[in-house]
Amino acid sequence: MKEWIVETNALTKKFHNFTAVDQVSFHMKKGSITGLIGPNGAGKSTLMKLMSGLLHETQGELKLFGKHPGEDPFVFRRVGTLIEHAGLYPALNAYDNLKMKALMLGCCSHELITELLKLCSLSTTGKKKAGDFSMGMKQRLGIAMALLGDPELLILDEPTNGLDPQGICDMRDLLKRLQEERGMSILISSHMLAELDKVATDFVVIRSGKIIEQFTKEELLERCRDCFQLRVDDVKKASVILEETCFVQTYEVLPKGILRLYDHYEDPSHIARQLVLHDVALYGMEDHHQDLEAYFLKEGEEHVE
């Protein structure tokens, strides 16, 4: 049985007459890295702030670790966050930044701070001030600060923003280590969908404050698997020919006369000949591969339509 670390039911947040999060219902399972995907203004940051206790819902239900925060406000202590800015002290080095926050949380120890610096690849920064750090170092320090208190859920809003390729690679490796070595559950938003595709185990798509769909990595791979794509004038007639003449069993019919074939397309010329022989106009044919970014854009177009 799956253990849900986050559950929302019709969760809504309004700012005066504007609804930023609208009737959101989704689940996040323990130990997952869940990618929250959506365009600017979709409600990603607001949803994360609700889950972090930084905002209070207008209506609906939020449960963390099976508990309602209203009944047990200490549940937010099990959540670490990096939303918008890390809130660093620029005149302090990495160690002292962590020490300051640890003192506020009542969990200050030299061993803990040293462990987090090592985990986030900051143990060699010495006396260098945080204000002189690269963007990648600042983001990693922000995550180290979020890990104080040993949270079970880590919420990260655009942690790869402004990072160079090496910084992005370091961030990806850190997130994987947190999940694999510590069993941590991570909710992460990012516009870099190719990177999110490499690290996430689950995905949630949000548009205009509403959850459009939720799917696992395995489901994404199934939806994005390689196929052969045709564009014809009559999909109904083409479907009959594919099944009865070309013996195609697994295919998908999409809008605008598109068919995607997932088996028996080793000889595309044979399929083309059969369609033309049966008076089906063939406008195009190509091998097709889709990644998370292409899938997201395609779903967005269909949602607009």
Automatic annotation (TrEMBL):
**Limits of the ABC transporter domain:** 6-233
The source's superkingdom equals Bacteria
Its signal peptide is none
User: In the UniProt record, does the keyword Nucleotide-binding occur?
Assistant: yes
Q: Name one GO molecular function term.
A: ATP binding
Name the SMART domains for this protein.
AAA (SM00382)
Which InterPro entries does UniProt cross-reference here? Answer: AAA+_ATPase (IPR003593), ABC_transporter-like_ATP-bd (IPR003439), P-loop_NTPase (IPR027417)
Q: Which UniProt keywords apply?
A: ATP-binding, Nucleotide-binding, Transport
Q: Which residues form a coiled coil?
A: none
Any keyword Nucleotide-binding? yes
Protein family:
Belongs to the ABC transporter superfamily.
Q: Which PANTHER family is this protein grouped with?
A: ABC TRANSPORTER, ATP-BINDING PROTEIN (PTHR43335)
Q: What protein does this entry describe?
A: Bacitracin ABC transporter ATP-binding protein
* Species assigned in the record: Clostridium innocuum
